[in-house]
Amino acid sequence: MPERPHAVLAMAAENVPYVFPPDLLALLRAHLDLDPALVVQDLTEPRARVALARAEVLVTGWGCPRLDAAALDGAPKLRAVLHAAGSVKGFTTAEVWRRGILVSSAADANALPVAEYALAMILLTGKDVFALREELRARRGFPYGFLPGLGNHGRRVGVVGASRVGRRLIELLRPHDLAVTLADPTLDAGEAGRLGVPLLPLDDLLRTSDIVTLHAPETPATRHLIGARELALMPTGAVLLNTARGSLVDQDALVAEVRTGRLRAVLDVTDPEPPPAGSPLFDLPGAFVTPHLAGSQGNEVARLGRVVVEEAARWAAGAALRHAVDPETLERMA
Q1: CA–CA separation, 44 vs 37, rounded Å?
Q2: Is the dihedral of CA 168, 171, 172, 178 positive or negative?
Q3: Catalytic residue among 45, 171, 273, 331, which?
């Protein structure tokens, strides 16, 4: 049997049992020579330095330390980073790419629960579930008969951003009787056509959507992508759904619109995060806020670990990584 590559776990120790439950940890160790009792967050700690000096692979996750030049100098044999989470922006540096270290991410797997959350919220807001639930609690009864304006038949959904999540959501929306459009300045009509949706300029999408769902990356160019001007374009009664990053939305402008009752919002991310205790978002009837849970949670987290186990098997066998991160497109990724 060929010698297994030396590897080190670099993430928050409390997350390891969730990402790699016993069966997955055993599979990971079948491909990589790693000590599950050594989980690194401080790369300068003596035990970590000894392990890193011989490590060929880092298995990373939430809580991974920053891989700058000083850290990489202590890992001269490092050739691959297998990330059991989504974005790698928070801990990789230009030095990683300069040294030719391959980076793989489980972002595709993490996109699925976010897209599922978005799908659920789109369908629920189409029925105005959140407002009607509060009305039911207050009245202890409800009106019978048809409620005008409710329903998902032909409801217009605008997807902002053809990211992994945005593309997965478009797939999940396909079986439903919805009119879906897309805005993304990095795509052309041909690419949008392959996704099966019309491509619109952002302003046109905002004007023509009952529900706008955000899936663009966080970059300097997308900060406050949705501000007072953009919110004013949305039809009265429309819903803004954000599962991407809080910075994409001018939160003060959104609060002003929701406070009037003209727009509603479903927010899994805010800016800042969490909102301050006195934020109007906690009390506004038209705002439904959840605690950044759209991404992998609970039993979904092990899905990320399985991706890394599969990547470790490929690496150990000398095969190409399936989920390698392209540094040329990293800036456009979430």
Answers
A1: 17
A2: positive
A3: 273
Catalytic one among 83, 167, 245, 314?
Answer: 245
Cα 177 from Cα 246, distance rounded (Å): 29
User: Is 273 annotated in the active site?
Assistant: yes
292 among known catalytic residues: yes
For residue 230 the two structure tokens come to: 């953009």
Pairwise CA distance, residues 197 & 194, whole Å: 8
Catalytic residue among 292, 300, 303, 332: 292
How many of the other CB atoms lie within 10 Å of CB of 43? 22
**Number of Cα atoms under 13 Å in the Cβ half of residue 228:** 3
**CA dihedral of 72, 75, 80, 81, whole degrees rounded to 10:** -60
Question: In the β-sheet with 80-83, what is the strand arrangement from edge to edge?
Answer: 39-40, 7-10, 57-60, 80-83, 102-105
Q: Is the pLDDT of residue 220 over 50?
A: yes
pLDDT at 1 over 70: no
Q: Could you give the CA distance from residue 24 to residue 157 in angstroms, rounded to a whole number? A: 38
How far apart CA 196 and CA 190 sit, in angstroms, is 10
Q: What is the pTM (predicted TM-score) of this model? A: 0.91
Distances (CA, A) of 58 to 43, 83, 84, 221, 230: 12, 8, 11, 32, 43
One-letter amino acid at 42 equals D
Tokens of 250: 């001018």
User: What is the distance between the alpha carbons of residues 109 and 264, in angstroms, rounded to a whole number?
Assistant: 29
Tens digits of per-residue pLDDT, 92-134? 999 999 999 999 999 999 999 999 999 999 999 999 988 888 8
Backbone φ and ψ for 262, nearest 5 degrees, come out as -70, -40
pLDDT in tens, 18-45: 999 999 999 999 999 999 999 999 988 9
